[in-house]
């Protein structure tokens, strides 16, 4: 399962990179979203999967899954949410101000600096 | 015995998910997609519930409730979007 | 007071919260900002004295023993950098009063600067690799907001690139932490170091070393990961640029320095040679950029890249001497870059443009600015007895003694390129006869000049008083060269 | 800090006072105030003469950075004292001269004198420092003050050009020299020149010896304007003439000579030293004297002549190094070269200083320095004429001036070299006297040009801006003093022999002088019809002939390709550096974020791929992995389909919804992998994010997909696949190399007992690692504030105006 | 176009409280069961968003009376204050304290300073989400 998840995460990374290399700003941001999904799955996988019960005490079980990656992912999820939100709003404002969401037209040269 | 039944159910649910994903992707209209998404929510609830039984834990019950709520809000939001083209109005008296 | 190492992080946090409450009044914000920044500086000084006398200070957050909780570790390196960062922030805040504009002040400029400082100080202090990520994120988030605050066209355009690059590096950072956790089973840096030293030959560690180099290299702007930097840094106004130029890239360098002395020192023939190669390429790339532009901001920005290359070369050489040089140079570069960007901001403000071909003749009306700038330029180029010299001296010397002749000479000659670029800037802006005569009325620049000039003064003192700083730096170097000191201090074995 | 240190620092302190003096005492020319210092210094340094005449020395140390071995050590021996006297002596004369040269009303005197004093202090520092790092510091300071002085009239483009050029070249040399010092310090483990010199024999066998030597010679050659670095000196003539007289002929350019002399004890035994210093010097001498002839600017001639004379001294020092190969002083012919070098150094300072001042006078009184416009000034400016005759004839090597003596000694040394059987000289030795002679001929010619083109010939008042007349007396004092010295040293050379020359020469070649011994320095005016005398006669005859027929052959300079000069090389390389880097930068700094990402990812793939491959880091271990259920595979497929949908989606709504679907699938995985907290959070966050996406992109154009070239698409796909592959590979390897137990056992044990909770993840979040959470919410807060500011604050002006209020 | 949303609005009001209760439950359960300040906060904002859907931004703004940005500051103050409280007792930063109390109505309950910290998280999350949504909503 871990190997499979590594591959899945790799595929998510690949898809994310592909999207980030495209011209459309929206696709780029969607790409960052995929990237964070891939990251979280990979992080979870690194702690080992399904090695025990959910890390909540009180149920009769011999072992628990590793709680550390879960806690880390939780932090990472929230942070990437914040980043995505800011990114989205910047994109939205950029579209308002600059009138395009095509990255080619957002390249900027020294001439207009 | 019950385990096998549950696992079969899970497989079926997974197939249902695939079908719904197809609808989600294919569309062709936005309402199609929204309904697919809503149904996926129901599917998620089922999967979570069955997994709870399988894993013999009550930890996922909150999730089930949460999915229900989110699916509700989501569907409402989409419905409004489809009807008014806007999700949140600033001042509807204007 | 066992919580002393927390203070340089806590004070900005509390300050930011207070600033949020008083966001309506600009005057109150200014007062609180100054008081908070000054007290951060003071607390850092007290902490430094403590570290000097008692050695590494650690605090286990929440009383959870290392390696299970998060441990803050103030060794000499981190506290030196924290102190420098705090001083710079204080000066930038003072400079901002007149330059940043009421609009930005009303929209949380000051609290976000405090958050930035908090992130920077935290990154320098933390002893936990994931916590480092969190501090990176708060620093980055603040920088996203600062780079775009005001919402002008160029800011919006460049911030997109900036965020995108950093999102990628953050994502890689998280998975790299995951990999490291998978291999070593720990997150505490001292603990990881101890565990890695038991398995030093594992090839996966080398791979992770390169991975971390990429992550921190993206933040620290090394070749070939620096391309996002020049455009993005040119967007925000001068005080923000000063913060970015002096603090953000240096955090990346700090992280490389820390991880490569604590974790990844086992496969030096591979990792450090790679780094050394990249360092030289970074210098060359920076030099090419610095020569390419006739624009105040761009020239100074590419000088960041050059400095990063020099620092990286110091780390890559990895002897006691070169690490000492790196620490010397790191602190120098933070101060002088902040000063130069602030002075550059004044030049742009006075001339109304950052294009060198359109300005000139400023020396007649602003002699103090001109000479201060020239002095800072010489400092940047490492002309003795100014501050850049001792660091560069040690780096080059160890380069020669380790047989890295080409590298040492490239580092030496980079000074020439630096000198050329900034002196050329000086001549164009201050000496050249302007195409259009300057207006007779002088702009009032006193309140801008004082913070900038005090940074230059600090840099001069740092250079002349190298002897006074030396014991501090050497204490920092000892910890870096002998990771066991760090490990023992944290794990209390 | 001893008196010696204060002597070095005094000019700097004085410099700090100058602006106040200038402001307060406006009636008096600031120069009078400044003049005190060099005079006092000159007199006070004279007291060291008795010490150095005994070949003794004085060393005073003050700590600066002892931890790094960098100390402020002042050291006086014969060589330094000679230079100190030159610096202060000529300095005093130059300041005096400048008082009349620079108007106190029109010029910004405070700048001039601050720079000049800075230079004086720096120069004293260079010649008195024992520590190489301090020496380097003062060395760079001379470059900087020279930069400032050349750019004194900074409005002029030529001034700025010359200033930058001189600084670039000399600082370049300085940096190389620093490198050399550092290499030396690695070899000898000290920064002290004295201590290094003491280890000279060991250093000679060190593998880094040659590197150190070459690097240090870079410093000397750039500063002393040796070929091919001399090009900065002619352009430095944009400086006010007193500066040219002081820095660019008498003192600063001699710093390189000083350096070579100072390091002779360490390096001179090496054959490389002999060859490099000797040939570079000699070639410079010939080349520059040859070029001087075609100059039309009076100062240009003098500049090239300075280069040439510096080359002469340099070659003498090179030749003198041969002396070290003889054990005793007896029958050691080559010490003569060293003595000649020192002697000529003094002589050059006197005659060239006076010539520069004369040029300044001419410029000042006629308004031009162009020899094509000058002529026939002999009767109008008789004193100036006399002075220039003395200076120029001395330079040409004519008796009875001091130049004659040292020129003779130079020719003698070169002739003797031809007879030396060291360093393969058997084959090439003859070249030395021949080149020396040719150089002398050209020297003779340009000396004549200086005198007769300006003062002889026809007076052309129509070409002059001013009506020329004799200079005021004050301006003439300094050149008169110098010219008298020229005659004095010419007639009574032995005034200097044992007071200055012997001690200085002894410091250059200390190893061959027995304790308490002295070099034999007896300079005699007449020593028979020797080879060198015959050569001088030849120089004069051929010189006169060539000078007479100058118009006939001056045209041959045109045959030299005008474009392939070193100057053009310098200009072109700067230009190429700027333009080239500009276009290079433009080519990769495209502004396209895609390009940057491609660089980053390409680097990511190659370097990590390379590392994995080289290190064999890939591990595959499926022993402790969890089982895979059917439904899990189903979910994986769902996830991948949703991902693929995003890739091919045509409308933004589809891609946003698909992203949501991916998010929900991920949360489902969280459920399967027993992470209820994650699943909860992921579900809510996904919903909110999707909502945000929809909100933000409500206004975006319907078709947000921009058609891309197929080539790009394929490239993107390859890069994407590469990144994915690398990530997966490292992931698998990392998972397969779990080498240590995780620290998580601690949490499982202590969650209830110590932290009072049951949900481990939550307890970690708020307690064990609550510190993370505190800053994580801070991140969120910043994000919210940023978004608020982004939407509400709209500064309409462009980025540049932000600097304004 | 004015539409009649009476049913939707009425249901929304009811559901709003249901969600809020669930959110508060999640928040309190956090230490022992899945949940916590994050999810609680997010869900609370979800409830508010539902109201926004049913009514409009202006009404909600009037109804809530508080500036959500102020809520962020307050939340941060709670969290940072809880963590910094340990400074007073000179124990390492962030050291929590807890004990079990016999409370009327609730029975044996543990009171934990971590709860206070989590409350800060809860407030910040509400503040942040609502600020973002409100700001974007208003800009249209």
Automatic annotation (TrEMBL), chain A:
Keywords: Cell membrane, Membrane, Transmembrane, Transmembrane helix
Signal sequence segment: none
Subcellular location per the Swiss-Prot or TrEMBL entry: Cell membrane
Gene3D superfamilies: 1.10.287.3510
Classification via InterPro entries: CPA3_antiporter_subunitC, NUOK/Mnh_C1-like
Membrane topology per record: Multi-pass membrane protein
Main location: membrane
Pfam family, one: Oxidored_q2
GO CC terms of this entry: plasma membrane
Transmembrane parts of this sequence: 71-95
Family: Belongs to the CPA3 antiporters (TC 2.A.63) subunit C family.
Protein name (Swiss-Prot/TrEMBL): Na(+)/H(+) antiporter subunit C
Source species of the chain: Domibacillus mangrovi
TrEMBL record, chain C:
Membrane topology term: Multi-pass membrane protein
GO cellular component: plasma membrane
GO molecular function: antiporter activity; NADH dehydrogenase (ubiquinone) activity
GO BP of this protein: ATP synthesis coupled electron transport
Keywords: Antiport, Cell membrane, Membrane, Transmembrane, Transmembrane helix, Transport
Localization in the cell: Cell membrane; Membrane
Entry keyword Cell membrane: yes
Principal location: membrane
Listed transmembrane segments: 6-23, 30-49, 69-95, 107-124, 130-150, 162-184, 204-228, 240-262, 274-293, 300-318, 338-356, 368-386, 406-427, 448-465
InterPro entries assigned: CPA3_Na-H_Antiporter_D, NADH_UbQ_OxRdtase, ND/Mrp_TM
Domain NADH:quinone oxidoreductase/Mrp antiporter transmembrane: 128-415
PANTHER family for the chain: NA(+)_H(+) ANTIPORTER SUBUNIT D1 (PTHR42703:SF1), NADH DEHYDROGENASE (PTHR42703)
Similarity comment: Belongs to the CPA3 antiporters (TC 2.A.63) subunit D family.
Protein name: Na+/H+ antiporter subunit D
Species of the source: Domibacillus mangrovi
TrEMBL record, chain D:
BP terms from Gene Ontology: proton transmembrane transport; sodium ion transport
Gene Ontology molecular functions: antiporter activity
Domain NADH:quinone oxidoreductase/Mrp antiporter transmembrane residue range list: 129-418
UniProt-listed Pfam families: MbhD, MbhE, Proton_antipo_M, Proton_antipo_N
Boundaries of every MrpA C-terminal/MbhE domain copy: 716-792
InterPro entries xref list: CPA3_Na-H_Antiporter_A (IPR050616), MrpA/MnhA1/PhaAB (IPR005663), MrpA_C/MbhD (IPR025383), MrpA_C/MbhE (IPR046806), ND/Mrp_TM (IPR001750), Proton_antipo_N (IPR001516)
Compartment list: Cell membrane; Membrane
TM ranges: 6-22, 29-49, 79-100, 112-129, 135-154, 166-188, 208-233, 245-266, 272-290, 302-324, 336-362, 374-396, 430-452, 473-492, 533-550, 596-616, 628-649, 656-673, 679-700, 712-732, 773-791
GO cellular component, one term: plasma membrane
Keywords associated with the record: Antiport, Cell membrane, Hydrogen ion transport, Ion transport, Membrane, Sodium, Sodium transport, Transmembrane, Transmembrane helix, Transport
Entry's family note: Belongs to the CPA3 antiporters (TC 2.A.63) subunit A family.
UniProt-recorded name of the protein: Na+/H+ antiporter subunit A
The species this protein was found in: Domibacillus mangrovi
From TrEMBL, chain E:
Keyword Cell membrane among record annotations: yes
Domain Na+/H+ antiporter MnhB subunit-related protein: 7-131
Pfam family, one: MnhB
Entry annotated with the keyword Cell membrane: yes
Subcellular location: Cell membrane
GO cellular component: plasma membrane
Annotated protein name in UniProt: Na(+)/H(+) antiporter subunit B
Organism: Domibacillus mangrovi
């Amino acid at each position: 399962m871990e190997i499979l998840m590594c591959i899945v995460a790799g595929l998510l990374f690949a898809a994310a990179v592909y999207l980030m290399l495209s011209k459309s700003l929206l696709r780029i941001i969607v790409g960052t979203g995929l990237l964070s999904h891939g990251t979280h799955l990979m992080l979870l996988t690194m702690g080992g999967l399904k090695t025990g019960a959910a890390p909540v005490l009180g149920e009769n079980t011999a072992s628990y899954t590793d709680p550390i990656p879960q806690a880390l992912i939780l932090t990472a999820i929230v942070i990437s949410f914040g980043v995505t939100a800011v990114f989205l709003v910047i994109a939205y404002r950029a579209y308002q101000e600059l009138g395009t969401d095509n990255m080619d037209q957002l390249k900027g040269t020294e001439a207009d600096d | 015995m019950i385990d096998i039944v549950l696992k079969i159910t899970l497989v079926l649910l997974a197939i249902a998910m695939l079908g719904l994903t197809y609808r989600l992707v294919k569309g062709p209209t936005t309402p199609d997609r929204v309904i697919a998404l809503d149904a996926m929510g129901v599917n998620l609830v089922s999967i979570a519930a069955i997994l709870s039984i399988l894993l013999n834990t009550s930890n996922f019950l909150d999730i089930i409730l949460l999915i229900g709520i989110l699916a509700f809000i989501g569907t409402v939001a989409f419905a409004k979007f489809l009807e008014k083209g806007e999700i949140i109005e600033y001042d509807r008296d204007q | 007071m066992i919580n002393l190492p927390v203070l340089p992080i806590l004070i900005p946090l509390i300050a930011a919260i207070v600033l949020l409450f008083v966001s309506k009044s600009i005057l109150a914000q200014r007062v609180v900002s100054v008081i908070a920044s000054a007290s951060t500086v003071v607390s850092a000084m007290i902490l430094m004295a403590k570290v000097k006398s008692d050695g590494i200070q650690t605090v286990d957050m929440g009383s959870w023993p290392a390696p299970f909780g998060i441990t803050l570790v103030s060794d000499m390196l981190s506290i030196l950098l924290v102190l420098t960062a705090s001083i710079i922030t204080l000066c930038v805040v003072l400079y901002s009063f007149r330059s940043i504009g009421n609009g930005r002040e009303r929209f949380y400029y000051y609290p976000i600067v405090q958050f930035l400082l908090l992130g920077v100080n935290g990154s320098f202090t933390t002893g936990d690799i994931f916590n480092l990520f969190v501090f990176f994120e708060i620093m980055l988030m603040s920088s996203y907001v600062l780079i775009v605050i005001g919402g002008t066209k160029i800011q919006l355009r460049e911030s997109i690139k900036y965020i995108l690059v950093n999102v990628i590096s953050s994502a890689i950072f998280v998975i790299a932490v995951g990999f490291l956790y998978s291999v070593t089973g720990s997150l505490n840096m001292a603990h990881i170091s101890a565990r890695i030293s038991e398995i030093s030959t594992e090839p996966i560690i080398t791979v992770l070393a390169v991975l971390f180099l990429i992550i921190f290299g993206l933040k620290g702007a090394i070749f070939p990961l620096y391309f996002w930097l020049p455009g993005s840094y040119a967007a925000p106004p001068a005080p923000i640029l000063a913060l970015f130029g002096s603090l953000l890239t240096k955090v990346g360098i700090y992280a490389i320095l820390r991880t490569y002395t604590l974790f990844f020192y086992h496969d030096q023939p591979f990792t450090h040679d790679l780094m050394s190669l990249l360092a030289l390429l970074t210098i060359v790339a920076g030099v090419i950029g610095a020569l390419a532009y006739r624009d105040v901001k761009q020239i100074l920005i590419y000088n960041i890249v050059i400095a990063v290359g020099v620092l990286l070369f110091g780390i890559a050489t990895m002897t006691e001497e070169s690490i000492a040089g790196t620490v010397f140079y790191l602190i120098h570069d933070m101060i002088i870059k902040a000063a130069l960007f602030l002075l550059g901001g004044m030049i742009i403000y006075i001339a109304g443009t950052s294009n060198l071909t359109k300005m000139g003749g400023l020396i007649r009306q602003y002699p103090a600015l001109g000479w201060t700038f020239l002095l800072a330029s010489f400092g940047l180029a490492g002309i003795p007895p100014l501050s850049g010299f001792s660091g560069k001296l040690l780096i080059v010397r160890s380069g020669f003694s380790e047989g890295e002749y080409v590298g040492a000479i490239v580092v030496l000659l980079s000074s020439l390129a630096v000198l050329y670029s900034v002196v050329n800037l000086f001549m164009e802006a201050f000496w050249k006869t302007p195409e259009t005569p300057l207006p007779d009325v002088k702009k009032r620049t006193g309140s801008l000049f004082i913070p900038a000039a005090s940074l230059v003064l600090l840099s001069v003192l740092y250079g002349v008083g190298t002897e006074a700083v030396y014991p501090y730096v050497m204490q920092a170097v000892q910890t870096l060269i002998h990771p066991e000191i760090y490990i023992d201090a944290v794990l209390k074995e | 800090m001893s008196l010696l240190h204060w002597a070095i620092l005094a000019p700097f302190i004085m410099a700090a006072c100058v602006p106040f003096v200038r402001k307060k005492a406006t009636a008096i020319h600031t120069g009078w105030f400044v003049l005190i210092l060099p005079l006092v210094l000159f007199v006070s340094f004279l007291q060291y003469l008795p010490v150095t005449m005994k070949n003794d020395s004085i060393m005073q140390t003050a700590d600066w950075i002892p931890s790094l071995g960098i100390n402020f050590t002042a050291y006086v021996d014969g060589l330094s004292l000679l230079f100190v006297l030159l610096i202060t002596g000529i300095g005093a004369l130059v300041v005096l001269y400048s008082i009349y040269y620079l108007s106190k009303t029109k010029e910004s005197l405070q700048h001039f004198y601050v720079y000049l004093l800075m230079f004086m202090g720096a120069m004293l520092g260079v010649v008195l420092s024992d520590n190489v790092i301090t020496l380097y510091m003062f060395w760079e300071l001379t470059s900087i003050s020279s930069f400032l002085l050349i750019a004194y009239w900074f409005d002029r483009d030529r001034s700025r050009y010359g200033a930058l050029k001189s600084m670039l070249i000399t600082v370049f040399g300085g940096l190389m020299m620093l490198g050399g010092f550092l290499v030396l310090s690695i070899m000898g483990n000290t920064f002290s020149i004295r201590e290094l010199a003491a280890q000279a024999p060991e250093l000679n066998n060190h593998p880094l010896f040659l590197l150190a030597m070459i690097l240090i010679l870079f410093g000397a050659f750039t500063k002393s304007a040796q070929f091919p670095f001399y090009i900065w000196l002619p352009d430095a003539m944009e400086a006010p003439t007193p500066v040219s007289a002081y820095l660019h002929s008498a003192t600063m350019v001699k710093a390189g000579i000083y350096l070579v002399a100072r390091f002779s004890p360490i390096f001179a035994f090496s054959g490389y030293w002999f060859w490099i210093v000797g040939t570079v010097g000699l070639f410079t001498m010939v080349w520059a004297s040859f070029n001087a002839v075609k100059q039309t600017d009076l100062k240009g001639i003098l500049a090239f002549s300075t280069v040439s004379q510096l080359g002469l001294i340099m070659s003498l020092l090179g030749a003198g190094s041969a002396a070290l190969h003889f054990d005793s002083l007896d029958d050691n012919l080559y010490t003569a070269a060293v003595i000649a070098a020192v002697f000529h150094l003094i002589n050059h300072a006197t005659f060239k200083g006076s010539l520069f001042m004369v040029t300044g006078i001419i410029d000042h009184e006629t308004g031009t320095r162009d020899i094509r416009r000058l002529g026939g000034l002999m009767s109008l400016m008789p004193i100036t004429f006399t002075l220039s005759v003395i200076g120029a004839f001395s330079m040409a090597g004519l008796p009875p001036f001091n130049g004659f003596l040292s020129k003779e000694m130079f020719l003698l040394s070169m002739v003797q070299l031809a007879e030396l059987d060291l360093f393969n000289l058997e084959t090439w030795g003859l070249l030395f006297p021949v080149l020396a002679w040719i150089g002398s001929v050209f020297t003779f010619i340009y000396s004549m040009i200086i005198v007769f083109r300006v003062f002889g010939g026809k007076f052309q008042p129509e070409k002059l801006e001013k009506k020329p007349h004799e200079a005021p007396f004050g301006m003439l004092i300094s050149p008169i003093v110098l010219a008298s010295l020229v005659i004095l040293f010419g007639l009574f050379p032995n005034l200097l022999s044992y007071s200055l020359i012997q001690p200085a020469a002894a410091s250059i070649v200390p190893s061959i002088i027995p304790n308490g011994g002295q070099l034999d320095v007896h300079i005699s005016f007449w020593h028979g019809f020797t080879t060198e005398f015959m050569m001088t006669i030849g120089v004069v005859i051929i010189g006169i002939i060539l000078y007479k027929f100058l118009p006939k052959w001056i045209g041959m300079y045109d045959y030299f390709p005008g474009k392939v000069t070193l100057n053009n090389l310098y200009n072109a390389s700067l230009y190429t550096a700027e333009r080239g880097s500009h276009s290079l930068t433009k080519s990769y700094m495209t502004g396209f974020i895609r390009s940057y990402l491609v660089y980053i990812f390409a680097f990511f793939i190659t370097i990590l791929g390379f590392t994995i491959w080289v290190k064999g880091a890939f591990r595959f271990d499926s022993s402790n992995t969890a089982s895979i259920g059917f439904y899990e595979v189903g979910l994986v497929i769902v996830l991948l389909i949703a991902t693929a949908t995003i890739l091919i989606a045509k409308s933004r709504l589809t891609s946003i919804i698909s992203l949501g679907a991916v998010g929900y699938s991920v949360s489902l995985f969280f459920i399967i992998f027993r992470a209820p907290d994650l699943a909860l959070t992921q579900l809510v966050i996904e919903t909110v994010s999707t909502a945000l996406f929809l909100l933000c992109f409500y206004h975006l154009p319907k078709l947000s997909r921009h058609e891309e070239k197929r080539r790009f698409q394929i490239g993107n796909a390859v890069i994407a696949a590469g990144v994915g592959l690398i990530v997966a590979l490292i992931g698998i390897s990392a998972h397969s190399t779990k080498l240590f137990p995780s620290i998580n056992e601690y949490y499982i044990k202590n969650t209830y007992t110590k932290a009072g909770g049951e949900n481990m993840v939550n307890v970690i979040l708020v307690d064990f690692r609550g510190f993370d959470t505190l800053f994580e919410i801070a991140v969120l807060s910043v994000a919210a504030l940023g978004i608020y500011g982004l939407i509400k604050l709209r500064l309409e002006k462009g980025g540049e105006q932000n600097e304004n209020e | 176009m004015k539409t009649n949303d009476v049913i939707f609005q009425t249901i929304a009001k009811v559901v709003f409280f249901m969600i809020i209760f669930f959110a508060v439950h999640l928040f309190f359960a956090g230490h022992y069961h899945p949940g916590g300040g994050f999810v609680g906060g997010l869900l609370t904002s979800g409830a508010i968003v539902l109201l926004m859907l049913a009514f409009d931004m202006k009404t909600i703004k009037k109804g809530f009376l508080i500036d959500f940005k102020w809520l962020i500051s307050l939340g941060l103050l709670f969290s940072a204050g809880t963590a910094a409280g340990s400074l007073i007792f000179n124990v390492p930063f962030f050291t929590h304290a807890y004990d079990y109390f016999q409370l009327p109505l609730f029975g044996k309950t543990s009171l934990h300073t971590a709860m206070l910290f989590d409350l800060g998280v809860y407030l910040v999350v509400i503040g942040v989400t609502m600020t973002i949504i409100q700001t974007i909503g208003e800009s249209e």
